Amino acid sequence: MDSYNTIKNYKADDFLLSVWDKSEIYIKALKNWAKQGIYRNPLDNSLLINYPPITAASPVSSAMYSDWRDSLLAMPDDMAVALYIHIPYCSRRCTYCNYYSLIKPEAPESYIDLLIGEINNYQNILAGKKIKVNSIYIGGGTPSLLTEKQLEEIIDIIYKVFKVKDNIEVSMEFHPELIKNKQADNYLKHVRNLGINRVSIGIQSLDDLILTEINRGHTADDALSLLELILAQGFDKVNIDLIYGGLPFESLNSVYNTLKALMRLAPTSISKHFCEIKAGSVDFERYKKVRYYIPIGTRIFAFRP
Q1: What is the pLDDT of residues 143-161, one digit of tens each?
Q2: Which of 62, 134, 200, 221 is the most buried (most CB within 10 A)?
Q3: Contacts of 2 (CB under 8 A, 6+ apart)
Q4: To the nearest 10°, the Cα dihedral for 290, 295, 296, 301?
Q5: Cα–Cα distance between 279 and 51 in angstroms, integer?
């Protein structure tokens, strides 16, 4: 379903009309594929975007650690890496989420200390060699739970330990609940002053009924208000994350209306994520107990035994 892929340099009306016009074609195609055995249900894990699969992950042994260190030391001087910083804290748990996270109102100082300590270890591990970094991504969890001081400490240690290239992309994820903070405007200014030039907002949907059901903790108005505030700050890139294809109360109308509202504000990109119900999520347990109906094209929602 190419029309749902990341949207860049779009013309709003043309794109929305193409999604709407082709939706019936996609539905027919999916039904034909299903007859041939090509399908997946909401309990299936991703077979396409995760390789190797998450289930293949294993604990890191001493030998693996040594190999990793030797590989870093052997990196050519002209080679650079992408650096990912993980903040595993959320103010609440979304019903579709299967990732490990801890429910906290903010990121504890103890975690920030450990994170800074881990980054500092690279100086000892690499015997003074500075690895080049060509992009930085701060994800989670909910990175926007970080205080201004915590975020500044993390950015400072990255630039101290690594050789960060000039004019790189520095990304950070935001939750729409940030708009409820009276100091949100000042927070965003501080974020931008630290050199973060790309923000990604996890809006997921602009349908309040859906947002309530999946426990997002914000309304459509909250999400749009934060987006407007972020765009006003002049960040180089602003991305929106959306989920489709399995959220409760979802319909083609709700997806269409969400896209239409967002495109009026013209973010840099909109990324789609197919809703996958995986073990470890609230929805996974719900799917096991009941049959779940989300018809396409109509606003009907039902749980039936």
Answers
A1: 999 999 999 999 999 999 9
A2: 200
A3: none
A4: -80
A5: 18
